[in-house]
Amino acid sequence: MLGCVQLLPMGAMAIRMAAAPSMVTPWADIVTGEKALRLTDASAAKTVLTVCGGGTLCTPMAEGGVGFMSHASYVLDDDGCPAFPLPDSQASVNLRNAVSKDGTSPASFFVHGTASTTLLGHVESFDVTSLSEFTRKQALERSGLTDEALMSAAWHRVVPERVYFADPVRGSESWVAASDFTEATANPLAGANAELIRRLAARPADLLRVGAAFADVSVAVEELEPDS
Question: What single DSSP character describes residue 210?
């Protein structure tokens, strides 16, 4: 049996550890190296679109050679495709000029947080009445439009044919098949990460207890008065 006492630099608490770890934790998020389980690139690409609410639509100019970029506040449909009312009249003209026989127009859509996702595909008309009540409220908040203006606007969605994902933190980038992107599931906690980190940082004693439970270590945490 091992025993030790550790004093944190802040002098706010003492931790008494009464047992050595007896097992290797199976939790993927605290396993390092090659054994660590991470999101697939398809799931990570969809996660970027899930946590963001604005992207850049690039439509082809009739003159050719360059693309015209427009900001679009979007929501995701059931397939994870960004849907939005098109705010820029020039972009609308570009899409009409480039429309093909099937009624769609080529375009790309770029979204970035820390990582970035680029959808290369086509734009097609979208029925805004198909949005759920929750997603419609999201669209109201993100677009700044009234409910009447939102429902009467001409909506479009980008349907990817190829997806490009880049993560500068991990130093990785890859092409993702459109079918893999459509079927992928985004990280459900991604949108709450910042709040989770804030709450954990505000309660270090509880964080130590949870960490000890993961590592199968018996820990007694005593709250101490901060040094004056």
Answer: H
